[in-house]
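Quick note —
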Amino acid sequence: MLNTLFQAHSGLRYLVLLAAVAAVVVLAWGLASRQPFGKPARIAVAAFTGLLDLQIVLGLLMVGMGLFYPSLMGHMTMMLLAAVAAHGLGVLARKQSDPRRAHSMALIGVALALLLIVLGIGAIGRGGLEGRATPSAEGTR
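Predicted structure written out below.
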């Protein structure tokens, strides 16, 4: 089960990255073209935050199943902060009446989340696109 969760968590990172890139493109386009903060922007932000939330749940399940080592504390902290940034600025963006401000806030939220994700991946000592051997619960405590 732990191996399945690890593989899902490891593979989901590509969907999170793809959703982040899509959100940046949609939000930057909306900002540049002065479009209202409408359905495409909301869907892009929701897709990114939803996949990020799923990634966090899978990570927490792995920790709950016994996969833990000290550098995970920095990783988990950064990833939780990334989710807070994405959700928080996404919510604030939806409440804005000025479309430029809304797109800007959501774009900053996604960009800040991406920065925190990169820092969180660095906390476990590897790059975001690097693979890693499948973990075992033994030897990680």
